[in-house]
Structure formats: C-alpha cells, structure tokens
Amino acid sequence: MNLTGAIEILKLHKHTTDKFKHSIGDKYVSDAIDTVVTELEKPLPTDEQIEQYALENILDGVGIQSMINTKAWIAGARWMRDLKNGYKKALAEITNPVNDVLKRADDIICHEFCVTYDDLHRRTRLRHIVEARQMAMYVRRKIFNLSLHQSANDFGLNHATALWSVRQVEVLICNDKLFKARAQRVLAAVGEIKKFYDKR
After folding, report:
1. What pLDDT digit, counting tens, does each position of 29-47 carry?
2. Where are the alpha helices (DSSP H) in 96-176?
3. pLDDT tens profile 72-105
4. Which has the closest alpha carbon to 157: 167, 165, 145?
5. Which residue among 57, 101, 139, 170 is buried most deeply as judged by most CB within 10 Å?
6. Spatial distance between the Cα atoms of 129 and 117, rounded to a whole number of angstroms
7. CB 189 within 8 A of CB 106
C-alpha cells in the first residue's frame, strides 16, 4: 500500500462510525498506520538541502530551460516536503489516544450545551458558546490534569484565559443551577470515558 492509500485509510478510520471502523478491520487499519509511520519517519529535507541536491543532480548545463526545470523541481520538492510534514502532524493527532479522548469529551460538552464542535473552537462572545468552551478547559484541567497552557492551546488561547475559565466554571457551578446540572452530567460522562481509556 502506498502513502496516499494509507493516509486515506487513516482518514476513514478517524471520521467514520465505529460500525464502519469494525468492517474495515483492525489489522487493515494497523497495516496502513505502519506504512505511513515508516514513510514519515524518514527525515524531511531543509530548503538548503533541497537546493543543494537540485544543483548536484537536476541542473544540467547553464541554459534557461535547465534553470527553469531546476526551479520547478525545487518547488515541487518543497511542496512534497511540506505535504509530508502536514501528514506527520495529522498522524500524530490520529494515533494519539489523548487527543481521541479529548475529542470525545468535547463532543459530550457540545451535546450538553447545544453547540457544535466548530462553535467550541471559534472566536465569539456568545454566552452559551463561551460557557461551553470554559467547560471544555475546565474538563482538561480538572479531569485530565493538563496544564493551563495545554488546556488553552486547543482553543488558540493563553494560560491566563484557561485559569479564568476554570475559576468561572467553579463560580457558575455554585451560583447557576442550570449550569451546575449540565456540568455534573458532563463530568460524570467524561469521567467514565477517562476510566475506560485509563484501562487500555
């Protein structure tokens, strides 16, 4: 299986339902991941290394066409390097169980607060979205014991915002009965998910 095919299987593995994942077969997915990991473990070249390789192996003569061919090859090599770098990041996200369980936690929060996953990550001051995002950072901090920086980083925010969010959730739990009920349901559900992943 080539790199492109393996990446496509990974995409299916990430985005389809559990039923369809089962129909693909764990071994098929595992083989795809192994193929991608083997390919992406190779070090990616720097711009200087690409240009040096082109001068030594692609450039033939001093004509204009030769220079055009060489520049086109360099551009293509850089594009492929950047593409593989993007695959590396995607692979790390897909195969990291912490990211998987956090995504499941976010899905629970989105359902409870009636927002979408995209809402949770977009910049807005709408109260119901802000409270859902604060709850997500609270969960990261209190249940998964992530640092303030890690808790905020998923939402493109800083540690001070995460600290404020944690404190704000604690205030809302004490003073807002509706929020408290939602928070309790979220914490109970996410706690069960964490127990399951801790046993794996």
Report:
1. 555 555 555 555 666 667 7
2. 97-113, 117-121, 127-142, 148-153, 159-175
3. 777 777 777 777 776 666 655 554 555 678 888 9
4. 165
5. 139
6. 10
7. no
Angle between helices 47-57 and 64-95 (to 10 degrees): 140
Geometric angle at alpha carbon 192, from 118 and 111, rounded to 5°: 30
User: Residue 184 pLDDT > 90, yes or no?
Assistant: yes
The per-residue pLDDT for range 49-77, each reduced to its tens digit, is 777 777 676 655 555 666 666 777 777 77
Within 10 angstroms of residue 145's Cβ, the number of other Cβ atoms is 9
**CA-based nearest residue to 153, from 141, 170, 142, 167:** 141
Looking up tokens 């070090």 gives 43
Which structure tokens are listed for 179?
């929020």
Are the C-beta atoms of residues 106 and 144 closer than 8 Å to each other? no
In angstroms, rounded to a whole number, what is the distance separating the alpha carbons of residues 179 and 172?
Answer: 6
Phi, psi of 122, rounded to the nearest 5 degrees? -100, 150
Instruction: Give the C-alpha distances (Å, rounded to integers) separating 163 from 61, 101, 132, 146.
Output: 62, 22, 15, 12
Structure token pair of residue 62 = 């001093």
Task: Tell me the C-alpha distance between 30 and 34, whole Å.
Answer: 6
